[in-house]
Design a protein that fits this description.
With 399 residues, the chain is α/β, with parallel strands linked by helices. Helix content is 40%, strand content 14%. The protein is built from 13 helices and 13 strands. The protein has a seven-stranded mixed sheet with strand order 2-8-7-6-5-3-4, sandwiched between helices. It has a four-stranded antiparallel sheet with strand order 9-10-13-12. Strands 1-11 form a two-stranded parallel sheet. Strand 5, helix 8 and strand 6 form a beta-alpha-beta unit. Helix 4 packs across helix 10. The longest helix is centred in the first third of the chain and has 20 residues. It is globular.
Length: 399
């Protein structure tokens, strides 16, 4: 019998436990909801923001939808509309504290599209990208897409950056160091001191080997920070810094796939880098970011959003876990909480996740994020789900 060939990497990866476990848990949660009722299942598997888009965004959607001018839905430059790039330059200035022009912005299909464009632009086969672990699982695939290798470097016990370990991991093949702050899955915000120390390490490495790595900061959760914290700017600290981000989490439009790349104007090759990203945007098949939502975010990028409900839910899930006797890292931002697997399960996060599922608690094993022995709960769910999970957690933990 003849068969259609599937690429080895795709076949091996999509059938491996680590690659599919997060979506697998989500799908199993849906099956449990269908069988036992949604109110009886406590699904913390996916980071799907549940705040509605703010009024300014909805108003912008309505206004853009009324545009009946000729060519309103046609092609534009691969980098995006001029007004969208200019708006993102203003946004980046407000976050980084220095002048940024539209020429340093490329509109993309979400933060994922932005990362794939950056990697296409800078990576040669055999290159390496260093990432602190734990990290967003898809990074592995984005780097592999370009024939490069993701080098995983453990963070410190509190999930802050271990710059000494990163320094030891750097080689002449290192093209970039990729950080995600606030971090998925831990909610950790890397401090300004951490970023300064990392910048020093990267400069020193560049001077020694003649290749200064890019510092890529993945920041879709930047606006969601707790207890008065803020995310440190990286442009003032390192010239070869790049930001990739989106509007998926901060204004709750993940399905619209709109983001951008911003390169530090001080980067030695900023113009060539941006030209390469724009070219990559085209040849990867994205062509351009969605036209409609470029116009929306150009109008409403600074919409005011109240994230206090996420902070409240963080506190509620922490109270549940405290009562159940489950250790965790206190989130400083985003909407995830990373929990240590209890000793009884000997660090087996897959087994612990399966055990919790018996009590209709759905979570994501840490192995999917490059860190075994932990599980991730996404608390961007209803308070009813969080408070309802209390009895299930207590029963599961014998309390």
């Amino acid at each position: 019998m003849l068969c259609m060939p599937i690429a080895n990497y795709i076949r091996e990866t999509m059938n491996s436990k680590g690659a599919s476990v997060i979506r697998k848990m989500f799908e199993e949660g849906n099956a449990l909801k269908a069988k036992y009722g949604a109110d009886n299942v406590f699904d913390f598997s996916l980071g799907n923001p549940d705040l509605e888009p703010p009024a300014e965004v909805l108003d912008a959607i309505e206004a853009v939808s009324r545009d009946k001018s000729h060519g309103a839905h046609g092609y534009m430059p691969n980098a995006g509309y001029a007004q969208a790039r200019e708006a993102m330059a203003r946004k980046t200035e407000s976050e980084q504290g220095l002048k940024v022009s539209a020429e340093h912005i490329c509109m993309t299909v979400g933060a994922a599209g932005a990362l794939n464009c950056v990697f296409k632009a800078i990576l040669n086969a055999g290159d390496e990208v260093v990432v602190p672990s734990p990290f967003f699982a898809e990074y592995r695939h984005y780097v592999h897409n370009q024939g490069a290798t993701l080098v995983e470097v453990p963070t410190k016990a509190d999930f802050s950056l271990d710059t000494d370990a990163i320094s030891r991991a750097l080689t002449p093949k290192t093209a970039a160091v990729l950080i995600n702050t606030p971090n998925n899955p831990t909610g950790k915000i890397y401090s300004e001191d951490d970023i300064k120390a990392l910048a020093d390490v990267l400069r020193s490495h560049g001077e020694k080997c003649g290749r200064k790595p890019y510092l890529i900061s993945d920041e879709p959760y930047r606006a969601i920070a707790y207890d008065g914290r803020t995310v440190a700017p990286c442009f003032p600290l390192y010239d070869e810094a790049v930001i990739v981000t989106s509007f998926a989490k901060n204004i709750s439009i993940p399905g619209e796939r709109i983001g951008y790349i911003a390169v530090n104007p001080a980067a030695e090759d900023a113009a060539e880098f941006m030209a390469a990203c724009i070219f990559a945007n085209r040849i990867l098949g994205f062509v351009n970011a969605p036209a409609f939502f470029q116009k929306v975010v150009a109008r409403a990028w600074n919409a005011k959003v109240d994230y206090s409900s996420y902070e409240k839910r963080r506190n509620e899930i922490m109270a549940v876990l405290d009562e159940a006797g489950i250790e965790y890292a206190k989130p400083e931002g985003a909407f995830y909480i990373f929990c240590r697997v209890p000793e009884k399960w000997a660090g087996d996060d897959m087994a612990f996740s399966e055990y919790l599922k018996k009590y209709f608690i759905i979570c994501a094993p840490g192995a999917g994020f490059g860190m075994k022995g932990w599980v991730r709960l996404a608390y961007c769910v209803s308070e009813k789900t969080i408070l309802g999970s209390r009895a299930a957690f207590l029963k599961a933990m014998g309390k």
